[in-house]
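Sequence in, structure out. First:
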Amino acid sequence: MASASLGNGAAGVGSSSRSAALRGHVIRTSIGGGRNGQSKQICRALAYIHNCIGICHRDIKPQNLLVNPHTHQLKLCDFGSAKVLVKGEPNVSYICSRYYRAPELIFGATEYTTAIDIWSTGCVMAELLLGQPLFPGESGVDQLVEIIKVLGTPTREEIKCMNPNYTEFKFPQIKPHPWHKVFQKRLPPEAVDLVCRFFQYSPNLRCTALEACIHPFFDELRDPSTRLPNGRPLPPLFNFKPQELSGIPPDVINRLIPEHARKQNLFMALHT
């Protein structure tokens, strides 16, 4: 995608897309504020494509997240690798950009789930917090080494969950690296907890995108007085469409959308 540098802004270093379809701003690294809102919007976008459309993006990375540096509104783009995943049908394992590739893909799994997008989102969120990629592997094998250095060596059971056909278990026993040392700065416990939920070796143990949306890490965004670092109002975070809420229990909707936002939405007022 052709782009022109825009320089540093509240959302980090961005580029303006010359493509009419992708005009916006691309996050490369986020070193400023608004990170909670950006992470929340990524999770909401994934909840929509996973649950409403039924597709897996398969290439979540900062370059595919367009952010308006003034409003901090985020758009997920580039669906060139996206696919409807059908249980029992194989998929290519060599997918997703390396730094954001889920470990089951590195282990050669072909029957993976939308949980690979969740792992990638965790990588993006960690990058927002760190200011640099968390797992900067130079090859597929080196990528796995970078993951193990942080999460520790996966157990046989975890490897089986990632790829039942993988039979090699010759890995050095490495202990997990404490998260407070990984980030080398004080983070809210809610941030650490959410990161841990993204980074589970077993795909079925990772949180879903919807579960991430209602995580306490994002509670401050529910406060109507919360503002962006530049003093502007938050981007629209709670303007859910009926199809986004279809099948979601009322108690989850109440956690998903704060009362002040429900009062502003006629649909919500009639259905709660």
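Second:
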Amino acid sequence: MTTEQDPNEIIKRGDLPKMLHVCSDTVRKMYNAKKLPPYDVALSRKTSGWKRSTLVAHGVKV
């Protein structure tokens, strides 16, 4: 059985380290080095995120 993942699911910046098995500093460095795409949504002043489809299109395996 395969589980289909919603391409429009929002992945918060705080959740990405767990998904990639890295620390939060690594995600910050990846973002600053343009290895991650710009955020798709700003959920609050301090919380941003991406659509799953944006990360996949940029080559991030989530």
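Remark: The chain has one domain: 10-57.
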